[in-house]
Design goal:
Elements (H helix, E strand, L loop, with lengths): L1 E6 L5 H13 L3 E6 L9 H8 L15 H8 L2 E7 L1 H8 L6 H8 L4 E5 L3 H5 L1 H12 L3 E2 L3 E4 L5 E5 L3 H15 L10 E6 L4 E2 L5 E2 L6 H12 L3 E6 L11 E4 L3 H12 L4 E4 L6 E3 L20 E3 L3 H12 L4 E8 L7 H12 L3 E6 L10 E8 L6 E6 H18 L4
Parallel strand pairs: 1-2, 1-3, 3-4, 4-5, 8-11, 8-13, 11-12, 13-16, 16-17
Antiparallel strand pairs: 6-7, 9-10, 14-15, 17-18, 18-19
Length: about 400
Amino acid sequence: MKVVLGVGGGIAAYKAALLLRLFTEAGHEVVPVPTAAALRFVGAPTWEALSGVPVSTDVFDRVDEVNHVHQGQTADLVVVAPATADLLARAAHGHADDLLTTTLLATRAPVLFAPAMHTEMWLNPAVQANVAALRAHGHTVLEPAVGRLTGPDSGPGRLPEPEVIHDAALRLAARAGGGEGPLAGLRVLVSAGGTREPLDPVRFLGNRSSGRQGVAVAAAARDAGAEVVLAAAHLEVAPPAGVELVHAGSAEQLRRACVRAAARADVVVMAAAVADYRPARVAETKMKKTEDGSAPVLELVRNPDILRELVDLRNTARRRQLVVGFAAETGEAGTTPVEFGRQKLARKGCDLLAVNQVGEDLVFGQDTTALTVLSARGGDEQVLEGTKDEVARGLVDRIARELAAVPAG
């Protein structure tokens, strides 16, 4: 997808550089089109280095390519961030006095504006009228975030975080494309994060899962056109926009949430790190240290096997549903994580199993990962490596292929 990234002349322009990187890391071609004022905040070398394309602001640059029309005609998506009060006004009234405004007039691609300005400016009736006009023209204008602004000021007017803009832009592009994608028309349940099993009102038994991989899978399924339900245990990352979020703290809460959501799902991806055991008893008050220095003895009981239960429910109902499990393995002497994964695939009865080797400095909380995907139908195992977003997209592609390979009925 070709993304034209318009950058207005505000202090929040530095965040647009981070937004550019999100698009390029997701595999999209990005053409930055800053205004002349934006270049006073972030210079052309930064935009060129991050995008790999030359930066232009003037309609008289590259006249032989008719650049002021070409960029708009060839764009699949136009994102303007930050959209200043001045830029919103010029766009709303059809001005064509620089490369960005001419691009906005020439494009038929979906356009998203992410405003950023001081609160008084954002609430000014003239700015609100311009926003209303842009929306009436069919453009998307995000609401600004509320928070710290330039200097000591705080309030509505802050540029939304790059991840929020990125997610909103991808949703807009998917809608404009009719939602077509390898999972278009399907409902996908994804679980993510680590469960927390309470010991008392203060303490819990947990694990090192950050939820990054499950969140990335949910976002990739959304971008592939699916309607996504994210059953979220403890997350250390923000859930993606555009998905239905269901919170679940403990394994039992997650089980109930997944059983409900799976009843309507075409695909189930169990990426959450579910505790195998929980305390047999939960103290009603905070557990105190004993006077004699003795340590408490904790009795644990087994948690429900959510993945196996979902497979059994699918089989009993004879639903055409693809179930994907995750196996976080450390391996042991003489047995590799993948060998443990093959055993788990047979034991759980799921269709695909994504196996990764974990440890204190492996996978949990990291930006990169490696998964080995095993299929109950047999065949060669597939290795996915890269950032967790890249691996998630690879897994979604594999899910789409697996669905196509299984005949209906």
